[in-house]
Amino acid sequence: MHPSLNQQFTELGYWLLQDWCYILVFNGGVGADYVQKEKVVPRGIGSNDVGLRCARLDGDADRLVYFSVSTNSSRKFDLVDGDKILSLFALFIKEQPSILAKDGNEKPNNNSQARLGVVQTAYANGASANYLKQLGLEVIFTPTGVKHLHEKAAQNNELGLASEGSERQKAAPRLLSVRKLINQAVGDALSCLLLVEAILQQKGCRDHIYLFSLVKVVYRTAVATTNAETVAIRPPGIQEAIDAETVKYPKGRCFIRPSGTEDVIRVYAEASTQEAADSLASSVAKIVDRFLGFGTSQQ
Asked: The whole model's pTM is what?
């Protein structure tokens, strides 16, 4: 390469690096992932924001969380994460076919029914899945990844929209609007935020509405999973050890999954209290470390 061109590319790379470092610092302590994982009120939220419905996106705007600070004296807040947002969407969509299925006298029409399901990964909170099932929704789990979720969702039949009637005339456009608003190709926090606000406005709501652990291992490929990545089938004996630990905790749920990019095993733990979830995650992290690690576990 010509010396002058080489120098130009070097300078360009330097300035790009400077800009990238600035972006990282600029987004520190405010993103959706920070709020959800660290459970800390983001920077810029003060006493004037108490009681307000707030939202945070992550750096590439494919994740969204809502939260509300309840008091001036506390830095604690109420978190509405993706599982709760999904439940809000499911409830809203579930109501519309019910309206369409009614006849002119507002009585259910058994000849016009639609099946509605929700597709989640195993990382979805188990309580949200149970809640959706109690509402009569079909809940299906897939491996992690948009392609798996989309493939399963695409297997559902199209909903046949019913005809006239004042409430039914409103319900049909609502369903069509949801389909147009939601980005069906990729995670899109902006479209999700708009849908949350639209649903809350339609319902007249003006007020606001688990634990991960990482273990460094020698080879992440030593772990193989099945059943939507919730059951480890390799190495032998590790799943039995995890199950034996999990049953010690009320409403305990735990599984492991290898990272796709580094030699790290992700431990997901759920329990009836935060303390129990912390303890379960720590115990299973030690199991993973014993089977696959270097003798020390990290959280």
From this structure: 0.53
